[in-house]
Amino acid sequence: MVSTTAFDVADYLDSPEMIAAYLDEAFASEDPALIDKALATVRRARAQLKTIQQRR
Fold it and tell me: What is the pTM of this model?
C-alpha cells in the first residue's frame, strides 16, 4: 500500500525570494480568492519559520 501526506506549499516558502515569487504569481492571477489564500499561506509560512528559528 502507498502512503501519502498532504502537500503544504507553506513548507516550501523558506526564503524572501520564494515568498515574493509565490505572491507574484498569486497577484498575476487577479483572482481575489487566490490572492487571499496566498497571503494566508505566507503568514503561516512565516510563523513556521519563526518557530523553527526560535528552537535553534
Answer: 0.82
Cβ count within 10 A of residue 3: 4
Cell triple for 53:
528559528
The per-residue DSSP string of 1-56 comes to --------GGGG--SHHHHHHHHHHHHHHT-HHHHHHHHHHHHHHHHHHHHHHHH-
Residues near 41 by Cβ (< 8 Å), separated by ≥ 6? 9, 10, 13, 22
pLDDT digits (tens, 9 = 90+) for 9-40: 999 999 999 999 999 999 999 999 999 999 99
